[in-house]
User: Fold these one by one.
Assistant:
Number 1:
Amino acid sequence: MNAFKPLVFSGVQPTGNLHLGNYLGAIRKFVALQEDNDCIYCVVDMHAITAQLVHSDLKAQTRSIAAAFIASGIDPVKHIVFNQSAVPQHAELAWVFNCVARIGWMERMTQFKDKSGKNAEQVSLGLLAYPSLMAADILVYRATHVPVGDDQKQHLELARDIAQKFNIDFGDHIRKAGLGLDITVGDEPVHAYFPMVEPLIGGPAPRVMSLKDGTKKMSKSDPSDLSRINLMDDVDAISKKIKKAKTDPDALPSEVEGLKGRAEAENLVGIYAALSDKTKADVLAEFGGQQFSAFKPALVDLAVNVLAPINNEMRRLLDDVSHIDAILKDGGERAGAIAQKTMDEVRDIIGFLR
Ligand code: TRP
């Protein structure tokens, strides 16, 4: 049982261009969650310097993610959109969490192992502590639900471990300060200051694959730009990339089972389904038996219909950055007010004079 007030939080790093996989896998989910939840969406610029310290245009990248959020339909007035570094309480809580978490927890993260490789002694300390900052992002708002890709599941489990250890180690202090709530974790009753966050994984298109290889995820780091559709691609680029997308020589099947072993066909059908809010079965009921030469133009039309308005709105927003900057500033102030209340309480719990 989680008695904390439901609150959605998620973050996107301002590194590289957003593509269709980010849009269908994450941003569309963020948009949908706004209907029934309070949501905080953050451009995590402090995470962007963990793997690579110097970026040629971090400000532009940050604005571009914020513009993508807003152009896709996130409402920055009803909800909160801001950049992480504007709210220094994230870093402040991350320091506390650095002292809660154990080094071994961090070294076990598969993303850390992948990114550091044989070089684990040479990567930044920030890369190792990355999940601790991520836990702070979420818990400084005491957020309860976090929409993420499945690659972030392990980091969210770590956020739960940090919350759990903080709640238990400071249990007496939390009570003495008159803070916290009684919850159960598994079967154990715990007096908790921080909630146990729940990942929200999945959705209509959790995994959009490369247009050049249906077994690889669509990725901003793929050297071939033809492998992905970027949110900033214009109509010609979208159309060219879909026309050049890898396929096989067969017609589309009429049933979903017929997509087995046909990774590229499955990916294109999945993209069509997600963009049109249909199931793959619906799409195959319509296109089963047809060749890719007929299906691809339909997919181009659909993709352009959905993406061109977002693309135009992003361009409009990025044309005059004062509007985006004002939105981020306002979001940062509203987020900061919530975060400051948490940090005041955390200071009391720990015993920092204030
Ligand atoms: N690590 C996440 C990613 O790379 C980004 C992120 C940072 C995040 N802080 C977060 C996601 C907090 C969810 C909640 O995708």
Number 2:
Amino acid sequence: MVSRYREVYEAWQRDPQAFWAAAAGGIDWYTPWTQVFDAKAGVYGRWFPGATCNVCHNAVDRHLETRPGQAALIYDSPVTGSRGEWSYTELLAEVQAMAAVLADHGVTKGDRVVLYMPMVPEAVFAMLACARLGAVHSVVFGGFAAAELATRIDDARPKLVVSASCGIEPSRVVAYKPLLDHAIELARHKPDACLILQRPQLAATLVEGRDADLGALVTAARDAGREVPCVPVAATDPLYVLYTSGTTGQPKGVVRDCGGHMVTLKWSMSAIYGLEPGEVFFTASDVGWVVGHSYIVYGPLLHGCTTVLFEGKPVGTPDAGTFWRIVAEYGVAALFTAPTAFRAIKKEDPEGKKIGDYDLSGFRTLFLAGERADPDTVQWAERILGVPVVDHWWQTETGWPIAANPAGLGLLPVKYGSPTVAMPGYAVEVVDDGGHPVAPGTLSNIVIKLPLPPGCLPTLWGDDERFRSGYLDDFPGFYKTSDAGYVDEDGYLFIMSRTDDIINVAGHRLSTGSMEGVLSAHPAVAECAVIGVADALKGQVPCGLVVLKSGVDRPTADIERELVERVREQIGPVAAFKLAITVERLPKTRSGKILRATIRQLADGEPPRVPATIDDAAVLPEIETALRGRGLAKPVP
Ligand code: COA
Ligand code: AMP
């Protein structure tokens, strides 16, 4: 099939408003928009002002006419040995019961609800129930610790928290409730109530007067046949706030609106992912990340697909064939995960032998995102699966792909290491620090011309100013992606690294600045630097170099152990911070700036680029020796 990509991209370029107005035809609106795009509203303009809609209606209710008995949600949990399936009709009943419980606790339009949940169906029901009521959900990933949860509670100021007694990791049962209790203790804002899903693996103690048993309440509401109508909201009203790592360590509340978000997700399901309504989409991520929001929950349901919610890991639950089992059992047409999952599978089953156990004949495309997809992994996946592998690039902020190889429009030739080309909606440019376009092949800042398309963040929660200063001020007229890369002569994008302190660990976005904050708060630490070092499985892992205060005479190994524990306790296990190394001093410029990039190059076994402004180059061999002592400073295979 000849790709229609150029034709479609040019149609968008010719008339962006007509393009998105046509795409909006795929959505049910209560009242139409007064303008497709109002350039004067909001920080850089707003999409579909004047329109009213409800996301839950579009994701659930409206499919009852055409596909009432079709599976909407499949839950597959090898870690608990359970599974379940809900048709669109059954999903509506669950969501109405959940919405009734939230409404009974006073949740109304515009209220925030924090969801701190493992990968259970109730997480999806709760997200949709919030949408139904016009409330704003904020899902916090379960691998974050109490302090991170507390920061999010303080920023979102939720009326309610919905959580569970525990999450299940292959190695342990993670008690969520003590983390939640501690977070509420730490937070200045106190939610009115916490609704706790008691899981059989570990019961939580409920705090009297504040906590309630979610399961019991939902069962009662369901048995009573409670019906809760969809609340019409403005297309520009927020659907959710999702916090993501920011450069200062204070997470940024990415706001997603209702209308534009539905339009672009629905459009992407067919144009980018190449799926028809009724087909099965399996996104192996977590509802705590943007990939989970967009392509476990909203995208597939808005499109009338069946979505798979997987509580497990690509390996070890029970083996490297788990993904293939799911694809075969449920007739999955497309799988979306992070490259790190495939590196994990490749390590366990290098020949892909497990695939032979399953019938994957209905499987068409593998999508990878969340971190750079290394060519080795992409080619390996192509070889073992025999289907196209699409690397695509996006961010929490955009909510849907900026660049992809659009399966639904017809695939373009693949260039390994490139997520292919900009999608309609995105005018991507590579510019120098002064904002001037650079020649093809030149590595520099990647920016997107304003306005951003529908579905991208209109602002940060309660902080227009931080949105402007963090994303819009450096390159006037453009959105700064904070990714560096280049475009080649054919317009293919190559995304190489971040320009800020963010690192990407197993597809999880983390701020080294916030880890430095934890390390420097230790009483023995004088100064520190956290860098992301290359890792064959996780892409990057953090490594902290610390200089101790003079006079500290405790064994360095003890202090290093405490530092590792502190990051785990204060940020969470997801940070995967396992390496603290004591050094005598850190390399700096004459003005005192720590040379983190130079340390990273040393750690990765690359020839370090040493700036002329280095204060004392003699420190570099010292650092290299310290890194070597921990198995670093050599190239990663
Ligand atoms: N709740 C509590 N703890 C969690 C958690 C959760 N939801 N998710 C992860 N953790 C913990 C893990 O148990 C682990 O703890 P440990 O240090 O005690 O072992 C730690 O956080 C790091 O987790 P993770 O990065 O997932 O590493 P892993 O070694 O458990 O698994 C992979 C490695 C590659 C298999 C795993 O990262 C993976 O499946 N990645 C898929 C990519 C993905 O989902 N990306 C999201 C964006 S698309
Ligand atoms: P997140 O907001 O967690 O989705 O992380 C977004 C960041 O992950 C981007 O800014 C990139 O740095 C990185 N990223 C995501 N997808 C890709 C990709 N396909 N190639 C390279 N980097 C990616």
